[in-house]
From TrEMBL, chains A, B:
Protein name, as recorded: Formyl-coenzyme A transferase
Keyword Signal listed: no
Keyword Transferase annotated: yes
Annotated keywords: Transferase
Length: 394, 394
């Protein structure tokens, strides 16, 4: 698991992040995992996310430390001309791999692409916006305005269900990392800088368009209904066992479906229904259309068996399946404790725990970073002093 | 909105995709938006996703065409030695920008990194896996095994709520595009190829670790409860108006909160509660801890006003807010029809509609691709013939 930093794909890049919350820090973390040197700049006392929940019993933010692993830390008085100059110098310092800024603090003249490009003509800036018109927006408001909460949740629940995962922030952070890497490739070939703007609401709209959620009403004049825990467009849903275990089952292909029919011993009943309905359950559309009948046929098999028996029987089949688990169970299980994606991290302010690296393994190697600086050192740092261990910046 | 293809950041790259469903095709689409030439290879008759719902009334897949925009198409008999050789030649053809494969069809010896690197030593392969042990997995099973469905949904609903957006597929596709771009940067500097493996379950685990969902039980010994539509860790929830409109409201900062108190005319009541509870509502933790009381104080203002009046009043404040909308309303509204992210696309098999480009704008320009080939031409193509317009491959 030893890594020679210089062999990583983004070795030699130096990125400055003036950022907070999820998308922008996730961009910096991901670039750091790929080998870039990333410096997060915070205002005096820390940004608005410095103490964000969840925290340890002692008050250190698990959230902040998780998203800022492997970064240098600089604290500057961003309201003073001197502090602004320090950040500008940090971004535009000479050197092949430098001249890269990622920020969610758009609209500041002193940090704008125009200002920075006068100091370094090939600067790459990535500005993450809330909304494309410059107004603020966050994952939860962007998601509300888009339509996903209306198709999420139990069918009997008339209302909207927000997602728990801030999926748009995650996608936005990854698009931002891709924008940096793509812009750097162009700069290395042509010498040109780039000014990239990336609005969170456009991230969500673009994905919703590409996946057909917006195209469907445009083309067909209708939008889809909520499907509860059923998978849209094929056969998949959740089942409860005799002792209360719960499994998610997906039959995406005819083979998966045949195996599901076989393991549940429902061949005759399914064949009779298929014939009576004039359906062809080898087709996605027909499995989806008649999903409630199919679920009613399969349910007794699950309901009458223990979780262990269901797990053992499904393991012998091609059926896509997983038992629902909570975070605590996952964190204590093999997926974390026996997975090379995770390595021990000694995090100041938190202690030692198993932290994930980059999910993409290059030539069999997962890339990890060191810990975040202790957020307490950011809170307490005077202006223009490093909270981290990267040496003085002024 | 005219684009000179050669100015795009990934101009000159040639990528072959042997892929299906969401993650791998989204990777290819994103790289195509950034200027790469992407060829999707399908087996005779098309892959399992060729007709996936939603479809038009005539049966063309809106899903497939959305995810495969801007790609060339090659159909080959992937079970024959000749078809396999055609694909190998396509991937390993000489030329600086070639030698790149993205696939979710892992475990095929003829398409493996080892085999391809013998034909071209600097080949970059990105293999998207379902699960890290090579077993299949899809977004909905990976998500079930991780914990998010247990913290999603109305608090009164005892159970699990699947997300509707395949968020892990989306994140996986973007990580894959980032892996390609990073590996290309390394190859352009060192001449080295890369063999990248990217399991969908590790994507989900890595994000869950970074955002603290797994770290919280590891460090604190406890996992969080479902919070319904409330935003975890600060103040945010949804409210219903007199005529049934619904708004998502987030007060992420003290200023947002002061404005929310002010617009709802609840200053005296909130101040009295704050004092009685010994709370400080300038702190995220205190707003979150006492969120039910706060929601009860704010609700009457929403309940007694029309949707229009609520919208007008909130627009005057700093409070983060959006009205919940469905996909049909979004598709017909300014977010799509008056947004430079969308451009008319004439899609064979579908017709003309407004399709989104890349959400990241480079120097003010959104990058668009042409349409997908008509999936009917893929279904009908004989082996080793192009379904698209890229000329013969053999």
């Amino acid at each position: 698991m030893t890594t020679t930093p210089d062999s990583r794909p983004l070795a030699g890049l130096r990125i400055v992040e003036v950022s907070s919350f999820v998308a922008s820090p996730l961009c910096g973390l991901t670039l750091a995992q790929l080998g870039a040197e990333v410096t997060r700049v915070d205002p005096i006392g820390g940004a608005a996310d410095i103490g964000r929940l969840p925290t340890t019993a002692e008050g250190t933010s698990i959230y902040w430390t998780g998203l800022n692993k492997g970064k240098r830390s600089v604290v500057a008085d961003l309201r003073s001309a001197e502090g602004q100059r320090i950040v500008q110098d940090l971004v535009t310092a000479p050197g092949e791999g430098g001249g890269i800024l990622v920020t969610n603090q758009a609209g500041r003249e002193w940090l704008s692409h125009d200002t920075l490009s006068q100091l370094r003509s090939d600067v790459v800036t990535v500005e993450i916006l809330g909304r494309r018109d410059g107004r603020p927006g966050v994952d939860y408001t962007v998601n509300a305005a888009l339509g996903f909460p209306q198709i999420t949740g139990p069918r009997e629940h008339a209302g909207v269900v927000n997602h728990a995962l801030p999926a748009w922030d995650v996608a936005c952070g990854l698009y931002a990392a891709l924008a940096v890497t793509s812009a750097v490739r162009r700069r290395e070939r042509t010498g040109l800088g780039s000014h990239v703007t990336l609005p969170l609401d456009d991230v969500a709209l673009s994905i919703a368009s590409t996946l057909g959620y917006l195209t469907e009403p445009q083309v067909n004049g209708a939008e889809r209904d909520a499907t509860g825990n059923d998978v849209y467009g094929t056969y998949g849903t959740d089942f409860v066992t005799a002792d209360g275990g719960r499994f998610m089952i997906v039959a995406l292909t005819p083979r998966h479906f045949r195996d599901l029919v076989s393991v549940t011993g429902t061949h005759d009943a399914v064949a009779a229904v298929e014939k009576a309905l004039g359906a062809d359950f080898a087709r996605d559309e027909d499995r989806y259309r008649h999903r409630e009948i199919l679920t009613a046929l399969f349910s007794p098999w699950f309901r009458e068996r223990s979780t262990d028996d269901v797990r053992t029987a499904l393991a012998e089949t091609a059926v896509l399946h997983e038992q629902y688990r909570g975070f605590a169970e996952v964190a204590a299980g093999d997926a974390v404790t026996a997975n090379p994606l995770f390595a021990q991290l000694d995090q100041p302010g938190i202690g030692t725990y198993l932290a994930a690296g980059l999910p993409a393994a290059f030539d069999g190697e997962h890339y990890f970073t060191g810990p975040a600086v202790d957020p307490a050192s950011v809170r307490q740092a005077p202006a223009a002093q490093n909270a981290g261990e990267s040496g003085s910046v002024s």
